[in-house]
Structures are given as structure tokens and as C-alpha cells.
Amino acid sequence: MITVDDDANTELDSTFGDAASDTTSLNSSVLNYHYENGRRYHAYQQGRYLLPNDEHEQDHMDILGHIFSLILSGRLFLAPIAESPQRILDLGTGTGLWAIEMGDMYPSAEVIGNDLSPIQPKMVPPNVVFEVDDIESEWVYKSPFDYIHARFLATAIRDWPRLFDQAFKHLKPGGYAEFMDYDFIYRSDDNTLTENHEMYINCVETVRAASVLGQDACPGPKLKKWAEDAGFADVTQHVFKVPYGPWPKDPKLKEIGAWNQLQALEGLEGWTTALLSRVLKWSQQRIQVHLAKLRDDYRDRKIHAYATLYVVYGQKPGGQAGGGD
Questions:
Q1: What is the model's pTM?
Q2: pLDDT tens-digit profile of 169-189?
């Protein structure tokens, strides 16, 4: 149970003020992007991924990356990979920040990051390469990898078991794959989040909409079984409670919660609008009213809500065991 800070019971929080961003794009567009409801979406395999890829969403992605770093205490991964990996693959690389950091950490390794959108920077370490690709298509890599990494692919994947099978197939014997994703049904240990709160309603409705499209918005609890079914050995699972808002007493969780509140306010329009409008056929007026109530809930420090993050890694049998990072 997360202990609540004594100062957390004020209704509204303004740790970061209104979520807004003016950071410039990391890369100019090279494809004919699709625009909808004032947001920009990927053009390659149009409609496959429901989140935007515009500058605002890129900022949101980088905030998420910072949160993951805080959760993992500054580590880029948890798997005990070899000391000198030669080939590393980052699935759904987004802005490419994780791949770039891995390229700096392992200068002798070739690091490949793929994504549906070419939004990664051009100035990267010489050992880092970015590709536009759909990871649900058949992988065509000719050489296997020492380590395959994937995080936050919820609502991007329709066939998770096949994704795990392809990762297993394209690993070297002894190599590791690591997956990080959420259970997005929010909870509270002290029952301050109820089914009547807009935060909870949003979870239920977006999960329902994703399921209509054949996508799982809550893959986290299933990662371990998918890894085991694919043939991975020594499958290990770590579970983290990730609070929304700076209400926890624990200093680390308080910082994570403050950043997580910011990312939620930054990203809520992006991750809800497409699902609610395209799938559930909500009007824009209804969506905007919903978003306004949702923002109030995220800022309410009397609501002690959290999501649950799962980190799962496993090893392909054979070869040498990992040597840590």
C-alpha cells in the first residue's frame, strides 16, 4: 500500500500548472501525415496506431521516458544482459531517446530503433539506426539480436503472442527480451478512487474502445505468460505501482507521481480522442466535457489513484548467460 502524504488532502494540485509544451519537433516530417481533430498522426500503415505523432505527443513520449527512468532508479533496463552486447533492437522506439542512450552506453553495439513514424533526431550516435517499420509485420532481420526491448506498446499491438514469438525467433541463444507495459485500470488502496470518478470512467471506456479494435489496452498482467508461452526461460516479473499526482509520502513515489500527473495532463487528449471519436462515436462536445472533468480529477490530491506497471524479461535458452549492465 502506498502511504499518503499528510499534505496531500487538498482538492486541486498545480505542481506543474497547466500541461503545455512549445518544444520544437525533433525531426521534420518525411511522409504525408494524416490530420484529425487538430492532431497529426502517422501515415505509414495509417490508422494502425491511435496516438498522434506531433510535437506535443513527442514531448509526452519523452516525459514518459523520464518516468520510466525514475521507476527503474536510472536504469535503462532490468534484464541481466551480456556486458558487451553486439546487436540491440528497440521496438516502437518513439522519439528514439532510449535507443540513443543505449547507443551511448554500448558504443560497440549496433542499436536499431523502429517505429511507424520517422520522428527521431538526425544527429545520433554513429552506432544508432532508426527505421520506419510495422513490428506486427514479418520481421526480416538477417542477423539475430543480443537484446530486444519494448515498452508502452499498449493499443499498438493486436497480436501479442506473435510479437513475443518473433522476438524469440530473432534473439541469439542466451539473448534477452524485455517488455514493459501497464494495467491501465486505475486503482486506489484507500478507496478514494470510485467508479463514479471521470478517471475511472475514462479507463473503462478507452479499454472498451481498444478491445473493439482488437487491441489490449492493459497488456501488463499478461506479459509473463506470453513470454513463457513463446519459450523464454527464467522469465522474471517486476511490478510497480505508479501514482498519479504528488500525494505519496515516499519521496521517490512523490516525484514519480508529480511527473506522472504531468504526462497524464499532457497526453490525455491524444490517447482518448481517437478512441472515443473513431470507435465509440462520441461527439467533440461530449469529448471536451469529458476531458475537462478528467483534468480536474488528475489535479485532485484527494484521489490517490495509481496504475500498475509490469516489467518482464526472459532469456532464449542456450548460449552464454548475461553479465549485467
A1: 0.83
A2: 999 999 999 999 999 899 999
